[in-house]
Amino acid sequence: MVDTVAFIPAKGDSQRIPSKNVRRMGKHPLLAYTIETALQSGSFTDVYVVTDKEETMKIAAHYGAKAIQEPGVYTTEPDVVWVQYALKYIGRHGFKPEAYSIVRCTSPFKTAKDIRDAKKLWDKAYKEGYSSLRAVEKSSQHPAKMWRRQLTGEITPILLQPDGHKWHDSPYQTLPEVYVQNASIEMARADLGDSISGTRIYGYLSTGYSGFDLNFQEDWDVAEAKINRKEYELPVITRKPWLT
């Protein structure tokens, strides 16, 4: 098995859903479900929450994760900035993993099995020379039917059409399958430097609602409604709920 650590990014402030990472969903803060899933998977040497808030660090410890405080995390910089900070932090404490996984708490419905399945594929892909792995799902909207609009009002296809064939005039089911990445699971070599993907990426095909992502209040409302109707299930947490 490839020695891999889990990093769970959990910034304190969020513009679209205020304080969403520590906001309560069900009995626990949102962050707790991803910590629990990562721990239950048994796929990681350690599970770290990377945050800029002391309260989030306390919540992480309550639910069994280690914490790395990075004051400038997630400002306007790409993910690789805080990832490199976290790798250097654990390196200073004598631990240099072969790889890391970004497991985002904004996808709370992924399961321990989802992570184990992805890790099994990653172990194989790592040995075959892949730089990284990330979760993808079949796209419901095909890029062949997407357009650029000019100031004149004219629209032109985003994709180049092969051999003059007009894909935008074709039924969806006749077009090549395309996939969109989701935020549920990413894994990468620890030595990629200024990239979290590298040059050769393996696609882990996520299924069901594991890739459901909480970006807007509407997403949160949908998630809670589906939980109440027992359509979606949150990971079971046996620890006592965090009390603020």
How would you characterize this protein structure?
There is one protein chain. The protein is of the alpha/beta class. The chain folds into 2 domains: 4-138 and 180-228, Spore Coat Polysaccharide Biosynthesis Protein SpsA, Chain A (Alpha-Beta Complex); 140-177, no CATH class. The chain contains 5 helices and 11 strands. Helix 1 (30-41) packs across helix 4 (112-127). The radius of gyration is 20 Å and the shape is globular.
N-to-C order of helices and strands:
EEEHEHEHEHEEEEEH
The tally of structural domains comes to 2
How large is the count of helical segments?
5
Give the integer mean of the pLDDT values: 92
End-to-end CA span: 38 Å
Q: Largest beta sheet: what is the strand line-up?
A: 5-4-1-6-10-7-11
Low-confidence stretches: none
**Count of β-strands:** 11
Helix content: 25-40%
The CATH topology of the largest domain is Spore Coat Polysaccharide Biosynthesis Protein SpsA, Chain A
Give the structural class: alpha/beta
Based on CA atoms alone, the radius of gyration comes out at 20 Å
CATH architecture of the largest domain: Alpha-Beta Complex
